[in-house]
Specification:
Distance between the termini: 10 Å
CATH superfamily of the largest domain: Medium-chain alcohol dehydrogenases, catalytic domain
Number of strands: 17
Number of helices: 12
Shape: globular
Order of helices and strands: EEEHEEEHEEEHHEHEHEHEHHEHEHEHE
CATH architecture of the largest domain: Alpha-Beta Complex
Helix content: 25-40%
Strand content: 15-25%
CATH class of the largest domain: Alpha Beta
Largest sheet: 7 strands, mixed
Radius of gyration: 20 Å
Structural class: alpha/beta
CATH topology of the largest domain: Quinone Oxidoreductase, Chain A, domain 1
């Protein structure tokens, strides 16, 4: 089959790789009908995961048609159209039973986090879905059957960015009348703004430095917008604008934020896990007693973390990978495509064969790229 594979820093290829096979009784094989590139795929693309082997199949936003099912699969059958949540979870361990599927104890024996498709050995070694076919383990606990009335484009984002953005709004505790700041106007940030309004936020402030993404936040989400390159201290400006700070700040940027020279050097030397610029902005933009929720991916260690700023002002910090299994089905029951339409973030629809081009324009923010859908 054809698949997008990692070949080194800022290098991916569309290559011929072996077709996946059933390995355990609760596996399924899915013929991919739609997949996407996620912002966290760019962390791999930039070489932030040193354990990633060359030739590894990428991608964790995937849906398709079940082609084969192991004899232990009872919830899914051949021919079902399914969306695949990005974390891999057994459905039976303590964490899965506590709706913390992204922390599954059994899907990734090599680390302190659960398994994730397409992220290499550090996340369990499960090859991803930017391919013609994908093997899905623990099929009784993961994939969700998609109703016929939803198109692939309406359903695909249930794999990651719809649950992640919903979880961000819910975990941030957004309620009626709140002022919410969303750092980053990429796909997760833009959808988080929509969920913030859904949860009753009265004022939404979006922060980025790309004009076309800020325009999207303004025109489609009704957010106030700030270009962080146009002021010395965005966090302090937000504090002034909101007369003391926002009720909730949601960081959808993570380690890929704008780096200082020192951060870039420390990250290259594996002394730091990327930028912490969004965290620093959040520490100043949030009000006393407010909440900061980190949903953008972060690395390991961070120097000069603004812990004292959070502590002194009684700020609640929440963070982590979304336990998507507990949210995909819940969101599926909402009127997707009607009251809540997530497809407006799609700017590019490309064949899988153009995977190298797709990664490049998504990474370099060329062609006003917000979200790329790939069609095998």
């Amino acid at each position: 089959m054809k698949a997008i594979v990692f070949e080194g820093r800022k290098k991916v290829n569309v290559a011929a790789v072996p077709d996946p096979e059933i390995k355990k009784d609760d596996d399924i094989i899915v013929r991919v009908t739609a997949t996407a590139i996620c912002g966290s795929d760019l962390h791999i693309y930039h070489g932030f995961l040193p354990s990633m082997p060359k030739g590894f199949v990428l991608g964790h936003e995937t849906m398709g048609i079940v082609e084969e099912a192991g004899k232990g699969v009872i919830n899914i059958k051949k021919g079902d159209r399914v969306v695949i949540p990005f974390p891999i979870a057994c459905g039976r361990c303590r964490y899965c039973e506590e709706d913390l599927s992204s922390q599954c104890d059994n899907s990734n024996p090599n680390a302190e986090m659960g398994g994730i498709f397409g992220c290499g050995p550090l996340f369990g070694g499960y090859e991803g879905g930017q391919a013609e076919y994908i093997r899905v383990p623990y099929a009784n606990a993961g994939p969700v059957v998609v109703p016929d009335e939803l198109t692939d484009e309406q359903a695909l984002f249930l794999s990651d960015i719809l649950p992640t953005s919903y979880w961000a709004a819910e975990t941030g505790g957004i309620k009626n009348g709140d002022t919410v700041v969303v750092l980053g106007c990429g796909p997760v940030g833009l959808l988080t703004m929509k969920w913030a309004a859904f949860f009753g936020a009265e004022r939404i402030i979006a922060v980025d430095n790309l004009g076309y993404r800020l325009e999207h936040a303004l025109s489609r989400n009704g957010a106030e917008v700030l270009d962080f390159d146009e002021q010395d201290d965005t966090g302090e400006l937000i504090k002034e604008m909101t007369h003391g700070g926002a009720d909730v700040v949601i960081d959808c940027v993570g380690m890929s934020g704008k780096m200082t020279v020192l951060e870039a050097a420390e990250t290259a030397l594996r002394m730091q896990g990327g930028s912490k610029s969004a965290i620093e902005t959040a520490s100043r933009a949030v009000r006393k007693g407010g909440t900061v929720c980190l949903v953008g991916d972060y690395g390991t260690r961070y120097n000069n973390f603004p812990l004292g700023d959070f502590f002194a002002r009684g700020v609640t910090l929440k963070m982590g990978q979304c336990p998507a299994q507990g949210y995909t089905g819940r969101i599926l029951r909402l009127p997707l495509g009607g009251q809540f339409d997530a497809t407006g973030i799609i700017t590019h629809r490309l064949p899988l064969e153009q995977g190298e081009h797709a990664y490049r324009i998504f990474d370099k923010k060329e062609e006003e790229c917000v979200k790329v859908i790939l069609l095998p």
